[in-house]
Specification:
Structural class: alpha/beta
Number of strands: 10
Distance between the termini: 46 Å
Shape: globular
Order of helices and strands: HEEEHEEHEHHHEHEHEEHH
């Protein structure tokens, strides 16, 4: 029996073991070891070119590693396609928005919920007539305070609000682990603050791993941070420790 189980500690939702990825002679990710536990709020930060996107793509199945292992809820998913990872409890967002701008907030969420279910879909039938789908969409929007804006078309929302709705769509699969790919990319300072508040309002039992370039947002949302530099984790710890680290200030902020 694993030591964690014997001690009564929870097993990790996500475990990366010696994860590496090379492109020809370039090693983009090198021997990364990382664990995310239930309820964790963990960030991976680093300067441009640190390997954050490559690491994210290895975790989500977009890329296959050169070596190492990815485990999700104890299962070795290293070679699994993305959709199988979703079925096991992983969800992700993307840097590029993927909403239907001419549809309403509710219609977008209804489509996301319906797309995850095995059900007969009749084109001429209103989505709102599928009671269980409608109830799930309402639950998701009420939980994040968007139910009163359900009839607003996506194109009339601010960029920051659209990014928030994308996260709602990711929650449609009832994930236990949510991966956020630079959720404030392209947002104004005010919108970034709103996103940080929105992320802090999510279910505390949901494990979140956030890849982020904006250090202020990362510090505002997560509890622990791993710093990636040239594909390697060079330091990991509580946000207060990372903020005060002279080494991190030197490699990330270019001071020292």
């Amino acid at each position: 029996m694993p030591d964690d189980a014997m001690k009564g500690n929870p097993a990790p939702c996500l475990s990366l073991e010696g994860l590496s990825k090379s492109f020809g002679g370039l090693r983009a990710v090198s021997e990364v070891n990382l664990g995310v536990y239930p309820g964790d709020r963990k960030g991976v930060i680093g300067p441009n070119g640190a390997g954050k996107t490559t690491l994210f793509n290895l975790i989500t199945g977009v890329l296959l590693p050169t070596s190492g292992q990815v485990r999700l809820f104890g299962e070795d998913i290293t070679t699994w396609p993305t959709h199988r990872r979703t079925l096991l409890g992983m969800a992700r967002t993307f840097q590029i928005t993927a909403l239907f701008p001419k549809l309403t907030v509710l219609e977008n969420v209804l489509l996301a919920v319906q797309g995850l279910r095995q059900m007969k879909f009749v084109m001429w039938r209103l989505l709102s007539s599928y009671r269980d789908v409608y109830d799930k969409a309402r639950y998701l929007l009420e939980r994040v305070g968007y139910w009163d804006r359900r009839d607003v078309k996506i194109r009339h929302l601010s960029h920051g609000e659209r990014r928030q709705i994308e996260i709602v769509l990711a929650l449609a699969s009832d994930p236990k682990l949510l991966l956020l790919d630079e959720p404030v990319a392209g947002l104004s300072t005010g919108e970034s603050h709103e996103m940080a508040t929105f992320l802090r309002s999510l279910d505390p039992d949901l494990a979140i791993l956030m890849i982020e370039h904006d250090m202020d947002v990362a510090f505002a949302v997560v509890d622990t941070i791993a710093v990636l530099h040239y594909g390697e984790i060079v330091e990991e710890g509580p946000t207060k420790q990372i903020r005060a680290s002279a080494r991190i200030q030197e490699i990330y902020l270019g001071v020292g």
